[in-house]
Amino acid sequence: MKFAFRVDASIVIGNGHVFRCLTLATALKKRGHKCLFICRMHEGYLGDKIADEGFEVLRLPIRNLIQKSETQRLENWLGASIQDDVADISDYIKERVIDWVIVDHYAIDHHWEMALKNQSIKIMVIDDLADRNHACDLLLDQNLGRNSKDYIGLIPEDCKLLLGVKFALLRDEFAQMRPVSLARRKNFGLNNILVTLGGVDSQNISIRILNLLEPILLNSDCNVNIILGSNAPWIYSIKHFISKAKFSTSLLLDIKNMATLMSQSDLIIGAAGTTAWERCCLGIPTISIALANNQVSIQKALLESSVILSVEVDDLDYQLINAISTIVAHPDQALAMGLRGSKLVDGLGVNRVVDYLLGLH
User: What architecture (CATH level 2) is domain 2-170+347-357?
Assistant: First the structure.
């Protein structure tokens, strides 16, 4: 079978949508199916990264929309109007005889999807928001606590829903590293902190965290790793900080061993996006920060399940120091928090999603 992914990354959108689609595409490829990507060339769109992973990429030009309203803001995320986006890809889809189009894009709704449905193409939507209508055959929302009531009136009656962290799209390495990581959670010592705020970290929260950690870690042996993508706009400011830092810290770009680095960490300070499910899978104590509107509900659900400590960007200076102090003062509670997370996510969600796409359920 042939699968086409319509997904974008950019400095504004971030990298998460592309990376979770790459996870699904890789799983499909391992089962012998062909996958290709359709991406518009926003700044930081990751086309070369996708190609390096072995996938064909159709690169669409930006149509230079001017932002005037909320609707046009979303069109700017798409890089074109709905009509132009469909026109740009229709012939490409037909020529390659695509079986499924997989959409992971907040600027796409039922208007775009209906245009392709009219070509008798099956459509899967990956969503987090449950805030707009879809014309799709399969919808995945991997958020904790999501249920079918959230999509009443938004999808066709015959659309199959895959809901909850059971279907979290994690790469195979997380399931593989899970036993190793959980085995480390016998005792707690703050020796390795991982800071992962998305590939872009457009608000440069990483540098704020480094400044807050410096007085705490000044006389300790703790090491801090900052993970970013090479398209992040604040790399040089972080490198400058590290060059003068009085504690052990490193910047890691475009890493390929995320599960290993996570499993070796005692504490993660991370955004409440897709990596939240990776941290749960590995059972790692976490201080979570919601950096975008779509992350607020994820963070709330994780907090209600007692698997994270949360801090707010607007009060980061006080809340982060307080959260770290709480973890150091109550190490058993920190370990219990991580282990509760591990019971939510087993790391096998992508295989379950592939089974549904291939009609095995």
Answer: 3-Layer(aba) Sandwich (3.40)
Among the listed ranges 8-22, 30-44, 61-75, which one has the minimum average pLDDT value? 61-75
Average pLDDT in the 197-210 region?
93
CATH architecture, domain 172-342:
3-Layer(aba) Sandwich (3.40)
Integer Cα distance of 242 and 213 in angstroms: 12
**Residues ≥6 apart with Cβ < 8 Å to 197:** 205, 206, 209, 228, 269, 270, 271, 289, 291
- C-beta atoms surrounding 120 within 10 Å: 6
- The pTM assigned to this predicted structure is 0.93
Backbone conformation region of residue 307, classed left if phi is above 0, alpha if psi is from -120 to 50, else beta? alpha
In sequence order, what DSSP letters do the residues of 166-187 get, joined into one string?
Answer: GG----HHHHHHHHHHHHTTTS
Helix axes 235-244, 205-217, angle to 10 degrees: 10
Instruction: Output the six-digit token pair for 17.
Output: 């949508």
Query: 160 phi and psi, to 5 degrees?
Result: -85, 130
b (16+ CB within 10 A) / e for 25-43: bbbbeeeebbbbbbbbebe
| Partner residues linked to 309 by β-bridges | 287
Nearest to 54, CA basis, from 79, 82, 34, 71: 34
Q: Where are the beta strands (DSSP E) in 127-281?
A: 138-141, 160-163, 192-196, 223-228, 248-253, 267-271
Domain residue ranges of the chain, discontinuous segments joined by +: 2-170+347-357, 172-342
Give the orientation angle of helix 82-95 with respect to helix 70-78, to 10 degrees: 30
Q: Is the pLDDT of residue 70 over 80?
A: no
d(C-alpha 349, C-alpha 353), whole Å: 6
- Cα-based angle 77, 40, 58 (whole degrees, multiple of 5): 155
* Residues forming beta bridges with residue 250, ordered by sequence position: 225
User: Is residue 152 classed as helix, strand or coil in its secondary structure?
Assistant: coil
Digit-coded pLDDT (tens) for 140-190: 999 999 999 999 999 999 999 999 999 999 999 999 999 999 999 988 889
Q: Report how far Cα 22 is from the mean position of its chain's Cα atoms.
A: 11
